[in-house]
Fold this protein.
Amino acid sequence: MGVMQVTPLSLHGDAILPGEGVLPVLPALQDLLPAGGLQRGSVVAAGCWSLLCLALAAGPSAAGAWCAVAGLPQLGVGAAADAGLDPDRLLLIAEPGASWPQVVASLLDGCEIVLLCPPDRPSAQVRRKLEAAVRRYGGVLVVAGDWDGAQTRLLVARQEWVGIGAGHGRLRARRVQVVADGRGAWSRPRARWLWLPGPDGSVAAVAQGVTGKVPDWAADEGSRMRAAG
C-alpha cells in the first residue's frame, strides 16, 4: 500500500485550535494524564489493544479533533462510534502494509490523534522518525502496545466483569484498574478504577469503595521507564 496523502489544515475541527498544548479527554481519564489531557507532540503507550485505546481517543474526537486508526482491521466504524468517536471525523486504515511508518507519518500530518497497532515491534530508527513527526505536527500518537520512550503509559492491570450472579445472568459492565506512569513529575505510578464500559456503555470513574494499590509490577515498569528516559 502506498503512502496515504492527507491534506493538513482541512481536517482540523473548529473546536480544537492549532497550538493548544493539550487535547481534552473523557473526565474519567483526566486524573491519569499529565495536565489532565493528552499532551500534543507526545506518544502514549496504552498496552494491548482494548477499549482503553478507544476511550483515550473519544475525548479529543468529541471535542472536534480528527482521529485516525491504523492497523486494526477488526475495528469498524460502528464500534468506534459506540466508544464515543465521531464517525464524521474518523479515518480507518485497516492494513497500512509494509510502509506503515510512512502511512502513520502522513496521518499525523492531518489528524490531531492517531491510534496505532504496529504490525511488528518498531526499530529505534522508526520510533525516532515517528516521534519527530508527532512533535512536528503537534499531534498525539496512541500506541496499542509497548513503545520505548513513550512519554505516558497506561495499562489495564486488573478487570472484573459485573452481571453474572450465581451461575446465571448477563455480563453488563466491566470494572478495570488502570495504572498510569510517565516521565518527570508524572513518574510515580498512579491507579484508578474505571467502568470500561459501564452498564450504560459509557466510561466513568468507579464510585468510592472499590480501591486497590498500584501493583508491584507496575511500579517496577515505572522505574524501568524512568531509567530508559
